[in-house]
Specification:
heterodimer, A: 346 residues, alpha/beta, 7-stranded mixed sheet, 14 strands, B: alpha/beta, 6-stranded parallel sheet, 11 helices, 42% helix
Chain lengths: 346, 325
């Protein structure tokens, strides 16, 4: 088993989209372990609405890449059942927003069975799902919701921001004996039919590797302000940090990579050096990740901060459809930049 | 069947198709050369209803503004046939302040209280809402009914089955309509559904069930008439499945490679030319009428789109309104 958190130099020149990196990780685990299989809506011939299973049907056939009816309670529950019998299903919930129709299986079963059984039963299952907005898909197809799932004990919540991490985190998620919710933002997948995003294509080693779940990455070192983010927002933070160099401001950008476990140590270590923090989160502002990070600092050492705790998050409104409305409330480059500059005291 | 009624069916189907073709053209007009779902005058997902006009038209001919209807993610044909204002609906789709929801909803979330019309983008989740509308109508002693429309893929969701049981148990004035277009995105009906006809599932809940083959507006009209009459008479719900056709992709931009040869077959079953030919053969339509129907539809649609395009965008600050009353 290879455990790394930086691209291996040897194959770092091969560039994949995040979607391709995810499907490659699944394929390699399926080759390695006959207990791994995939279920979900449109995962076979279509290859996943967001490309997460493209090519897998041709390679593994319909007995291991299984199209399901639109019956999320049924097939997520079936994934749980197969997992408790020792298989390692990778189940796709097409949009995280659809969790409403199947949440009982997710939070009362997938998340709790191990605990309820006193540790005797494991649920080694990956539930992967598309999150995020920015393309006018409205209130029922654009949410992030990682805070909702992170709030429930028993689920690991993985949120990659780039192709390299996406592959390594998916490999780690499939091998993990815990249930893992793997949330990919549509905007980081490198899809040909979405806004083109250079950070959604990147170097990915051909060989199998794991990125450990629960370990944040310093995506960009800096001395002036700690910027903590994840998923598509992380990419925006890197863009803004690059711009701010010209103004003599060095932001340190931390990619959480998972919400559960939350790498609190990485946050505290960075804030301990900079004394300033901006959390950038596309999930709803209240009762979520950004508040949890504030609590983490307050509980550790409130004196760490030399400027007010600052967050750029989704205000507590449903996702609006029209572009001027949605871009008012998304964590945009403009909002991120203003927050960093303000916290830096520039 | 009355000639004027039949011409009305034709007129409404042409109106809906003209609308969908215009939306389709504008949707794609400014997404080139690098196609981006979030770009252009009409951003986001777009699920168009071409081919499914007979369901909406045959059904809604029996409904009044005071009857309820819940539509799924593919709602335009149902909205227009139900009587939702074309201008306001179009402005919503173009994300304008004058839209049904001031730009907050979008094409999957059309709400028109004056027509008791709503949509949900979540499969099958509009169905229980129709049951609740029927509960309200029933408790208030009206003869209004509610109709839940969903695709055949939705008939494998728990909400569909729970709603049938509830409506039957409480003998509510509901008509459940399944639009079977053979495809749940890329998953064929035969790969998703354990029975050849969802109408047979009605028996499990003690309600009447009927399947309409042929995607024929008149057959839909007759079957829906029986179902609506039962509901209005207090005889409880009906489950109606119409075998229809999805002429275009699940959403715009769907390459539909998964359909293979079936797509050409589907395209040869366009219900509008077929109905036009039938009415011509029966002497109900002539060149002049066809021409007039098309011109009238084109004018109305052009007006609605012009209204949308000339309407202001919502102010960004309005994003914070309407979270609570």
């Amino acid at each position: 088993m290879t455990v790394t958190d930086q691209p291996a130099a040897a194959s770092a020149t091969r560039r994949l989209t995040t979607a391709k990196a995810i499907s490659e990780a699944i394929a390699q685990e399926m080759e390695r372990d006959p207990d791994v299989f995939v279920m979900g809506e449109d995962v076979a011939a279509y290859g996943g609405i967001f490309g997460s299973t493209t090519g897998l049907l041709d390679q593994f056939g319909p007995t291991r890449i299984i199209d399901t009816p639109i019956s999320e309670t049924g097939f997520i529950g079936a994934g749980i059942g197969a997992a408790v019998e020792g298989m390692r299903p990778v189940v796709e919930l097409m949009f995280v927003d659809f969790f409403g129709v199947c949440m009982d299986q997710i939070y009362n079963h997938m998340a709790k069975i191990h605990y309820e059984s006193g540790g005797h039963v494991t649920v080694p299952m990956v539930l992967m799902t598309a999150v995020g907005g920015g393309y006018s898909d409205g209130a029922q197809h654009s949410q992030c919701l990682w805070g909702t799932f992170a709030h429930l004990p028993g689920l690991k919540v993985v949120v990659p921001s780039n192709p390299y991490d996406a592959k390594g985190l998916m490999t780690a998620a499939i091998r993990d004996d815990n249930p893992v919710l793997y949330m990919f933002h549509k905007g980081v997948m490198g899809l040909p039919w979405m806004a083109k995003n250079p950070r959604s294509i990147g170097p990915v080693p051909a060989e199998s590797y794991e990125v450990p779940i629960g370990k944040a990455a310093v995506a960009r070192p800096g001395r002036d302000v700690t910027v903590v983010s994840l998923s598509l927002s992380l990419q925006h933070c890197l863009d803004v940090a690059d711009e701010l160099v010209g103004e003599g401001l060095e932001a340190e950008v931390i990619d959480l990579r998972s919400v559960v476990p939350l790498d609190r140590g990485a946050i505290l270590e960075s804030v301990g050096r900079t004394g300033k923090i901006v959390v950038v989160d596309e999930d709803y502002r209240s009762f979520g990740l950004s508040g949890e990070i504030a609590a983490t600092i307050a509980e550790s050492d409130p004196g760490l901060l030399r400027a007010p705790f600052t967050r750029v998050a989704y205000p507590d409104v449903p996702v609006p459809y029209a572009r001027p409305l949605e871009y008012e409330v998304l964590p945009t480059h403009r909002r991120i930049r203003e927050a960093i500059v303000s916290v830096a005291g520039r | 069947m009355d000639d004027e009624l039949r011409r009305g069916f034709y007129r409404q189907m042409v109106r809906i198709r003209t609308y969908e073709e215009a939306i389709r053209a504008d949707y794609h007009a400014d997404k080139t050369p690098a196609w981006d779902i979030g770009a252009g005058l009409i951003p986001g997902e777009m699920h168009l209803s071409a081919g499914q006009e007979p369901v909406a038209v045959g059904l809604c001919a029996h409904l009044t503004a005071d009857d309820g209807l819940t539509a799924p993610h593919r709602p335009h044909h149902l909205a227009l046939a139900k009587g939702v204002d074309m201008r306001k609906m179009t402005a919503e789709i173009y994300g304008r302040e004058t839209g049904l929801s001031h730009g907050k909803g979008g094409h999957m979330h059309l709400f028109d209280p004056s027509q008791h019309f709503s949509c949900s983008g979540i499969i099958a989740e509009g169905i229980p809402v129709a049951v609740g509308q029927a509960l309200a109508f029933h408790r208030r002693g009206t003869t209004n009914i509610a109709v839940a429309v969903a695709g055949e893929g939705a008939a494998n969701q728990g909400a569909f089955h729970e709603s049938l049981n509830l409506a039957s148990l409480w003998k509510l004035p509901v008509v459940f309509v399944i639009e079977d277009n053979d495809w749940a995105i890329s998953v064929a009906r035969t790969a998703s559904t354990s029975v050849p006809s969802n109408a047979t599932r009605a028996a499990a809940y003690g309600v009447a069930g009927e399947r309409v083959e042929g995607n024929d507006v008149e057959a839909v009209y007759q079957a829906a008439g029986r179902a609506v009459a039962r509901a209005r008479a207090g005889e409880g719900p009906t489950l109606l499945e119409v075998h229809t056709v999805r002429l275009w992709g699940h959403f715009e931009g769907d390459a539909q490679a998964y359909r293979g040869d079936e797509l050409a077959v589907a395209e040869s079953h366009d219900p509008i030319p077929a109905y036009e030919a039938k009415l011509r053969a029966d002497g109900v339509l002539d060149d002049a009428t066809v021409e007039a129907v098309r011109a009238e539809a084109a004018t109305e649609v052009a007006d609605a789109i012009a209204f949308a395009k000339s309407s202001p965008e919502p102010s960004p600050a309005s994003a914070y309104q309407h979270v609570f009353v």
